[in-house]
Amino acid sequence: MTTSPIERAADTFAAELARWRVERSMSKKQLAARMGFDPSYVSHVEGRRHRPTEDFARRAEAVLGAGGAIWQRYQEYDELRHARSSASHRDPPVPEQWMPPGTGLIVEQEVATLAYREGSYRCVIRRSLYNAGTEPVTRYLIRVAVDRYPHDPEKSNRHHREHPLSFAELDLQAWCGEEPAREAMEYRKKHDRDAFKEVWLLFENTEGRYPLYPGQRTVIEYAYTVSHDKWGQWFQRAVRLPTRRLTVRLDFPNWLDAQVWGVETSLSAEEAPLRTPVIRRAEGERMIFEWTTESPPLNARYRLEWRFRGHNGPPPSGLAIAVRASDRMRAVGIVQRGADSLVQLPHQFDLPLDEAEARDVVDRLMGALDRVEELHTFTKGVGLAAPQIGLSWAAAVVRPADRTAEPVVLLNPRVVESSPETDEQYEGCLSFFDVRGLVSRPLALQVEHAKWDGGRVITAFEQGMARLVAHEIDHLEGRLYVDRMAPGVPLVPVEEYREAGNPWRY
């Protein structure tokens, strides 16, 4: 029977250790291996044959993710031990190589949310931290990585070289603590590459410093934005600190009808499906996908992937929602009717001086068309002008109905000749896609437009391509197709339009 306070404190520590080990479904041998101790050592500590050390307690706390409970029991024991002893010796701190360099941090909970809105992804990471180290924590390292085409590294690398991710567009913001004592965190760049950023979040701002001292807890939250054309359809979390609980959440509009799945991997294991399912639930006009794991191993990686099926049919059954076509277009970054950019004259390119700018604009138009074509099938062909994605440049891209044909790129275009023969067909516009309008257009056009090197070329277009090209040139002249409709002719709601999916007839 134990009677001394020190012995009782040691027993309490051993009992707490055993409780958390059982809670985490780990054997003594498994725990010892994870902690870097001899297989028999945990058994000796739980059996009261060895007294705990500071090194042992810190490692046990980190591996078991006990939320500070094991460390608290050790401190109680240690205070009693040193109160009785005049010796000032204490066990050495945890070797730096055991935990990630410079930290003794434990993530008690992480909630990572990725939401898709208005053609962009907004990522919000919230972490509950506990300092199990011996030194104050004054900064926290985060990483932002994008991969537009995760299954085609060469294409993705080329894309990000041509369209590097910038800190300006990220709009990175970070906070520490809870309201009403929440503090903004400043940050310092560590690495700034085309598709990868490393940033130190600082426990300080212009008002002062607030280190996280040993034994203290806090919550940090940071958020950033990445456009659709730079973020592929995946979201990965890597476990770089001892973590007790990880939750990954995706937030999409209902009408996109997202299908989500997940995989996990680590330094020592091949990629495999997640061991537990991703849970799906509706919240108003949004669909939430959530996955949680307890005590993930260090260096594990969990990735959620998805595809959007909303353009293949109506919203999923059971979701009584009515999403306008224009809302779908707005969500993928198409400027809608009423915006100033649609009625203002764009800038002309000075080629070849502006070649890099022109290529960037065309690439962004191509990316926007890719997003649009995920939502709708264009049997008549489709075009897009730079003002429709908020860029004030005289550029447009037209994709013919025959998708084996190359897209037509128009830089500084102008119509130099049009046929007297015309016809009337219904047109739609991505900037107000809820309706269709009957528009008279020439059956043939000759269009002068610029080449990358500044030279000019004249290209002839007929029938459907002439109509598509004329529509886009109208955009570059500040006009919409409604400006060309005969007076008194009404617009037709898309729900009543009967020629969807059919080519124009000539």
Provide structural commentary.
By secondary structure, the chain is an alpha+beta fold. It has helices at residues 5-23, 28-35, 41-46, 54-64, 69-84, 153-162, 167-170, 325-331, 355-373, 463-476; strands at 105-117, 120-131, 139-145, 173-176, 183-184, 187-192, 196-202, 204-205, 208-209, 217-227, 234-238, 245-253, 258-266, 269-273, 279-283, 286-294, 301-308, 382-385, 395-399, 408-411, 414-418, 422-427, 435-442, 444-450, 456-462, 492-493. An 8-stranded mixed β-sheet has the order 5-4-10-2-1-12-16-15, with no helix packed on it. It catalyses: N-terminal N-formyl-L-methionyl-[peptide] + H2O = N-terminal L-methionyl-[peptide] + formate. Residues 17-65 form the HTH cro/C1-type domain. Its cofactor is Fe(2+). GO terms for molecular function: DNA binding; metal ion binding; peptide deformylase activity.
